[in-house]
Specification:
Blueprint: H1 13-28, H2 34-45, E1 50-51, E2 65-72, E3 85-93, E4 99-104, E5 110-113, E6 117-120, H3 122-140, E7 149-154, H4 158-164, E8 168-172, E9 176-178, H5 180-183, E10 188-190, E11 193-197, H6 199-207, H7 214-231, H8 234-239, H9 241-250, E12 252-255, H10 261-274, E13 278-282, E14 287-288, E15 305-306, H11 309-320, H12 325-333, E16 347-349, H13 351-360, E17 369-371, E18 373-375, E19 379-380, E20 401-406, E21 412-423, E22 428-435, E23 448-452, E24 455-462, E25 465-472, E26 477-481, H14 490-498, E27 500-502
Parallel strand pairs: 1-12, 2-7, 4-13
Antiparallel strand pairs: 2-3, 3-4, 5-6, 7-12, 8-11, 9-10, 14-15, 16-18, 17-27, 19-21, 20-21, 21-22, 22-26, 23-24, 24-25, 25-26
Length: about 500
């Protein structure tokens, strides 16, 4: 049994993956001048130092590769003892898979750091850099994992990268608020609802750590990179590749093999092949352990998460397993059997509160729909009753929220968001979104469509779990957003969407 504590948050592998897709797109479209392009790429990456004595296993051309992406505040040339890592992400690129598999290792996982003893896994980075981190992963978590490349991204470049790709439309699940003068945590004030997050606000969102667990933050970070990849097309990546690669090179350390032309070509041929693949998120099997009590000698018990060896072995197999055509069809089937009726198991009717939410949105600028069914035990967040915590400030105007979404060309679209709380301590909120923006990037590529209770629903599946269920009307687009950790079962997601009812 291993433990995993609450942590401060983190974010930057999305930065790496965006750059990796850029490079893949570049490699795929420069067949004639390929070597010259890779030569320039090696120059860009060589702005940062290579990781000395990186403990990697160089893969043969065409073989699958595992990349360890570390998001840190480490400055090149400084000792690791002054650095922290917020993110440890594993990326699996496999030419025989239709997905790019990603899995976060929670930074608060309790392990035995070789030479240092019992600690959180992120301390291995501070004690001995990426090499000690890899050794710790091998001895405590995934004994047979082969790391083919290491990418250590300094998050000082994150703001520049997000702005360079023209920001990221994000499906914000609830109101994020904190006043650093009162709590000591970083300040943030982001309203709920689908919106465009740029630069510093995007960094605030992915690094938020005041009330979330490590697992919720990991899920938010993985969602962010999925949103970024889905909305930022290959043509945009190619058009901006030079600026993106300069940012990437200036704020990244990699293993020595990625400072060679052979190493770059080997990896980025694989990346180019995978550029059109969807991202499959693998959830690390962690639970929070009791914490905060007094231990031996009066010391306060730190907060950790727990993960058994058998559970770790199970997710490791899922991470390594390629997604074949048969597996993809099975994942779609996992979204639930086809049905024309609403299946209400696990749900309860709450029409009165839904109507109250709709009444508060009477001037939203579009027809307002609310679901007749919500999850058992859940309740709508309401600024009038103050039932959802917002850091001590008023939630009027946030719960529910009427606002305008600006599309890529700056045109405004009337929109609204209802937020439903399941368990705030676990970061479990789901949303009901409406907008007149009919072609938002979030809903560009449904996994399948299904007619339920007379509605043609669009289903969006990730790793066998429904993240969103959407429905078009002539006037607007409506959707149900699952919790960040996809806690609502697929059939219940479909049933909630199918129960959408027009107010008034």
């Amino acid at each position: 049994m291993r433990l995993i504590p609450r942590t401060r948050g983190g974010a930057l592998w999305r930065f790496f993956l965006a750059a990796v897709v850029v490079i893949g797109a570049t490699a795929a479209t420069t067949a004639v001048a390929g070597l010259l392009q890779f030569h320039q790429l090696s120059i860009d990456l060589s702005v940062g130092q290579s990781i000395p004595h990186a403990e990697i296993k160089v893969a043969n051309p065409g073989e699958p590769q595992n990349i360890l992406v570390v998001g840190s505040d480490h400055r090149i040339g400084e000792p690791f003892t002054s650095a922290n890592t917020d993110t440890m992400l594993l990326v699996r690129l496999n030419p025989n898979s239709s997905t790019i598999n990603v899995m976060s290792i929670p930074r608060d996982l309790q392990v035995n750091v070789p030479g240092f003893g019992n600690a959180k896994i992120n301390s291995a980075y501070q004690d001995g850099g990426t090499n000690l981190l890899i050794k710790t992963i091998h001895q405590n978590v995934f004994p047979t994992l082969k790391i083919n490349h290491i990418v250590d991204v300094n998050f000082s470049g994150f703001i520049s990268l997000v702005n360079a790709i023209h920001c990221v439309y994000s499906d914000v699940d609830h109101r994020y608020y904190n006043n650093t003068q009162l709590t000591g945590y970083s300040s943030i004030n982001i309203q709920p609802g689908y919106q465009r997050l740029c630069g510093f606000r995007a960094l605030q969102f992915v690094r938020f750590r005041h009330t979330d667990s490590d697992l919720v933050r990991n899920a938010r970070q993985q969602d962010f990179i999925r949103w970024a990849k889905d909305q930022y097309g290959v043509s945009n990546l190619i058009a901006n590749r030079d600026a993106l690669l300069r940012i990437f090179g200036a704020h990244t350390q990699t293993d020595h093999n990625l400072h060679t032309l052979d190493g770059l070509i080997n990896l980025f041929n694989l990346v180019a092949f995978s550029a059109g693949h969807t991202i499959k998120q693998i959830k690390f099997p962690a639970q929070e352990a009791p914490c905060g009590g007094t231990g031996i000698g009066g010391a306060v018990t730190p907060c950790f998460l727990t993960a058994s060896s058998s559970a770790e072995a199970r997710v490791y197999r899922a991470f390594m397993r390629p997604t074949t055509a048969a597996a993809a069809a099975s994942a779609k089937k996992a979204a639930g059997k086809r049905t024309s009726k609403i299946q209400a198991a696990g749900l309860t009717a709450d029409v009165s509160d839904g109507r109250a939410q709709a009444a508060a949105l009477s001037h939203a600028g579009l027809p307002v729909y609310y679901p007749r069914l919500i999850v058992n035990g859940a309740q709508y967040c309401s600024g009038a009753t103050g039932n959802c915590p917002v850091g001590g400030v008023s939630a009027v105007g946030s719960y529910p929220r009427a606002y305008t979404i600006r599309d890529q060309k700056g045109a405004g679209h009337p929109s609204y968001r209802m937020t439903v709380m399941i368990n705030p301590d676990l970061g479990q909120y789901f949303g009901i979104q409406g907008t007149t923006w009919q072609n938002s990037p979030l809903l560009a590529s449904p996994s399948e469509t299904r007619i339920v209770a007379g509605k043609k629903l669009e289903l969006f599946v990730n790793g066998g779990k429904l993240t969103n269920v959407a429905w078009h009307t002539p006037q607007a687009m409506y959707w149900i957003s699952n919790t960040l950790t996809t806690d609502i079962p697929n059939r219940e997601m479909i049933a909630i969407a199918a129960s959408l009812t027009k107010a008034g």
